[in-house]
């Protein structure tokens, strides 16, 4: 466990640290600068909260109530492991005067349980079922920041961005779908300063792992789910769905397995060669040699006549595409770890890479959600995306748009907007999105 995720180092005085962080918080609200002793991850979260125009005195909004909340609980996969959460954390929450909470992937609280008096106090800040505690709605807090970072975190007292939440300390860990590794939500414990210890963070992390193990046990062991990771990776990583370590594939083998996973019906030798080599004059012997070496890695998973995979292999590309099909760009963006096999020049791979990135960009531009757009433009593949910066500036209120506006003007100048036709324009590292025309 890395020290940066812990709120207090050994020997730190909680009262002294709380006061110092509170003064740093007020200085940040007044002037935008963040100094010691604020952790880097907290400073980054405060800045995200400010860009999302979260008010320092606001409380989380309530998104779901009554029948809508009940239906969402019944349908959500985390409901299947709620008995486990109660078993591992419920008694501790009751006896330790703190709360157990479970949120979905959007930061909406599904359940809050624990000490009755603590629950009544928490209701005053809308820490209740149905409330949305994502960073963009409630500022820095353990469930929202754990979702933003995809990592267990501890948030102590004045590290919370919104003042009403600053009397609380919390620790939260993401829970992932064991089949796809998509974040399903978070499990959290919330209470007083006594939770600012390594034990609380280790506890929620262990509980999240136990929940993932139980979810994995719900699916038949005879049909392991194989997953191919290709986003943001030069070489694919193949998870076999069993206990052994994942298989790291070389560049050409990564391309072949991705193409076959995307064509479960199989590909003829000629079609596979076209997808790999395009119109280049490559001997059929070259492809057969590559497939022979790959068969030594995959064994019976690779078959021929036509070339195909004998069992379904999901890809992280599928996860993004399915979220876009469902009209959920937030989940799609969270699952998008970068361009698909970014160094590959295989025509079939290049086509898939461009199609996926173009679909995701169009969804983000259409949604015009400032939090999603801000996430996109802060990645290496989106940092020079002029249209996304324009959409972000347009989606922000005037008082929050100064810094993005300055970046937009600098990017327009770099693209040569207003300069003679033919001036050069930068390209983002690994980006495949269409660049805007030069004026």
Explain what the structure shows.
The chain has 439 residues and is an alpha+beta fold. The chain is built from 17 helices and 11 strands. The strands form 3 sheets. A 5-stranded antiparallel beta sheet has the order 2-1-5-4-3, with helices on both faces. It has a 4-stranded mixed beta sheet with strand order 8-7-6-11. A hairpin with a 7-residue loop joins β6 and β7. α13 packs across α14 and α16 runs antiparallel to α17. The longest helix has 21 residues. The C terminus is likely disordered.
Notable characteristics:
single chain; alpha+beta; Beta-Lactamase; Arc Repressor Mutant, subunit A; 3 domains
Count the DSSP helices.
Answer: 17
Low-confidence stretches: 419-430, 433-439
Overall, the morphology is: globular
- Average pLDDT: 87
Biased composition (Low complexity): 419-431
Organism: Streptomyces radiopugnans
Region (Disordered): 419-439
Protein name: GAF domain-containing protein
Summarize the structure.
Residues 419-439 are annotated as: Disordered. Helix content is 45%, strand content 11%. The chain is α+β, with helices and mostly antiparallel strands and 439 residues long.
List the helices and strands and how they pair.
Blueprint: H1 14-31, H2 40-51, H3 66-75, H4 82-95, E1 99-104, E2 109-114, H5 116-123, H6 135-138, H7 142-149, E3 153-156, E4 169-176, E5 183-191, H8 198-217, E6 226-229, E7 237-239, E8 247-248, H9 251-261, H10 269-277, H11 284-298, E9 302-303, E10 308-309, E11 313-315, H12 316-325, H13 329-335, H14 347-367, H15 370-377, H16 386-395, H17 402-415
Helix pairs in contact: 4-8, 12-13, 12-14, 13-14, 15-16, 16-17
Protein name: GAF domain-containing protein
Region (Disordered): 419-439
Biased composition (Low complexity): 419-431
């Amino acid at each position: 466990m890395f020290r940066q995720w812990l709120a207090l180092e050994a020997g730190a005085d909680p009262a002294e640290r709380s006061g110092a962080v509170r003064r740093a918080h007020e200085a940040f609200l007044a002037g935008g600068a963040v100094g010691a002793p604020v952790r880097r991850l907290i400073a980054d979260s405060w800045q995200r909260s400010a860009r999302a125009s979260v008010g320092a005195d606001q409380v989380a909004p309530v998104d779901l109530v009554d029948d809508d909340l009940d239906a969402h609980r019944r349908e959500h996969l985390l409901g299947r492991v709620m008995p486990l959460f109660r078993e591992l954390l419920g008694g501790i929450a009751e006896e330790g005067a703190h709360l157990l909470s479970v949120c979905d992937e959007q930061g909406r609280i599904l359940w809050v349980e624990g000490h009755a008096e603590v629950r009544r106090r928490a209701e005053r800040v809308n820490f209740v079922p149905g409330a949305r505690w994502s960073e963009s709605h409630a500022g820095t807090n353990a469930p929202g920041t754990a979702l933003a970072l995809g990592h267990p975190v501890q948030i102590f007292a004045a590290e919370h961005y919104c003042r009403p939440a600053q009397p609380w300390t919390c620790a939260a860990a993401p829970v992932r779908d064991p089949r796809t590794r998509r974040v399903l939500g978070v499990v959290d414990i919330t209470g007083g300063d006594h939770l600012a210890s390594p034990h609380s963070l280790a506890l929620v992390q262990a509980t999240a792992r136990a929940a993932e193990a139980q979810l994995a046990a719900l699916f038949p062991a005879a049909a392991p789910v194989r997953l191919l990771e290709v986003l943001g990776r030069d070489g694919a990583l193949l998870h076999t769905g069993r206990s052994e370590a994942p298989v790291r594939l070389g560049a050409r083998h990564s391309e072949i397995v991705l193409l076959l996973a995307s064509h479960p019906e199989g590909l003829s030798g000629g079609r596979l060669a076209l997808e790999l080599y395009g119109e280049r004059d490559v001997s059929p012997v070259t492809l057969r040699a590559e497939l022979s070496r790959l068969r030594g890695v995959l064994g019976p998973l690779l078959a021929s006549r036509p070339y195909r995979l004998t069992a379904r292999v999901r890809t992280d590309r599928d996860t993004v595409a399915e979220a876009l099909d469902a009209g959920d760009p937030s989940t799609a963006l969270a699952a998008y770890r970068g361009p698909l096999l970014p160094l590959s020049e295989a025509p079939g791979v290049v086509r898939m890479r461009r199609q996926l990135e173009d679909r995701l960009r169009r969804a983000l531009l259409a949604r015009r959600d400032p939090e999603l757009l801000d996430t996109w433009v802060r990645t290496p593949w989106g940092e020079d995306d002029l249209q996304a910066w324009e959409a972000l500036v347009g989606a922000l209120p005037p008082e929050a748009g100064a810094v993005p506006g300055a970046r937009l003007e600098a990017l327009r100048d770099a693209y040569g907007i207003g300069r003679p036709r033919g001036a050069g324009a930068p390209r983002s590292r690994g980006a495949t999105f269409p660049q805007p025309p030069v004026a």
